[in-house]
Amino acid sequence: MGAEHTKRRKGVLAELADRRLDCLLVTHPANWYYLTGFTGESGALVISRDGATLVTDGRFTVQAKEEMTGVKIELQQGSLYAAVGAFLRKKGLGRVGYDANHLTLAQWNALRKALGSKARGVEATGLVASLRMRKDAQELAVMRKAAILAGEVLEGVLKLVRPGVRESELGAEIEYQMKRRGASGASFETIVASGPRSALPHARPTAKKLRKNELVVLDLGAILGHYCSDMTRTVHVGRASKRVREWYRSVQEAQEAAVAAVQAGVTCGEVDAAAREVLKKNGLESILCTVQGTV
User: Fold this and answer.
1) What does the alpha-carbon distance between residue 233 and residue 213 come to, in Å, rounded to a whole number?
2) Is residue 118 scored above 90 in pLDDT?
């Protein structure tokens, strides 16, 4: 991955030239991982025409050397943002790009104080995120594996969906099975919501027991190779009634309409509208959120 990280940093340098910035300060862990491979939890990455430097403390220097190629390491002295500011000041980097979404006010104040009067912070919010939007072949392969892993876990857990089982038990089993299959963790807190609670878009698992003839929403995702998957499915406990089967067919039809609407130049709103139109025709528009994951 060293060559790929170098290529990505070159993309940042091109953006810096276009924006007339001397450097970019990267403070979000997902972004510095994308650009260097560093998986530590504390630090700040500085990218300039002179190269890339990671400012971090002594807990992560050995790890950084093992994970990164072509990136210098600056041992942090004192608080992180005071150290970063001092480093930028020492390098004479005047126009410093930063992402306002990943800096608190306190961090920015500490950085600005350490930078001195000759340097200027320039907002460059979303610069790295815009590069990350285009996935390369390796990223796509990892994302597919993360999705497959989540699907396999779901298939294995479905046999446990029965009356008397608690939502929290299913949630714990899902996350356990993801780790057993190699995931580093869940993409988010797993959602298991049954009965009336299935109408809550982001319901956390509770001690509620599943009951016969209830709908159960299972929303899960796995982190694999630092990439996340996310899938939602709605299942029925017991034999589904005619009414529930009608819901199923309507949602399936809506999904097919949405997929058919996807093409270059079409907005997300237009795809959403295609699905909603089918649900509206079948009298189900008002419960879209309840059964959005049914397939």
Assistant:
1) 16
2) no
d(CA 204, CA 129): 29
pLDDT at res. 284:
87
Residue 290 has pLDDT above 80, yes or no: no
Judged by DSSP in three states, 121 sits in strand
| DSSP string across 14-75 | HHHHHHT-SEEEE--HHHHHHHH----SS-EEEEETTEEEEEE-TTSHHHHHHH-SSEEEEE
Residue 74 φ then ψ, to 5°: -110, 115
What's the predicted TM-score (pTM) here? 0.84
Tokens found for residue 108: 């920015």
Tokens of 144: 């597919």
Answer for the pair 44, 80: CB distance below 8 angstroms, yes or no.
yes
The pLDDT of 184-194, averaged and rounded, is 96
Confidence of residue 288 (pLDDT cuts 50, 70, 90): low
- The count of C-alpha atoms lying within 13 angstroms of the C-alpha of 197, restricted to the half-sphere facing its C-beta, is 19
Q: What does pLDDT average to over the chain?
A: 93
Q: How deeply is 263 buried, as exposed, middle or buried, from its count of CB atoms within 10 A (0-12, 13-18, 19+)?
A: exposed
Position 287 scores a pLDDT of 58
Asked whether 210 and 163 are in contact (CB, 8 A), the reply is yes
3-state SS assignment for residue 272: helix
Residue 6: exposure state from Cβ atoms within 10 A (0-12, 13-18, ≥19): middle
Residue carrying structure tokens 């999904």 = 255
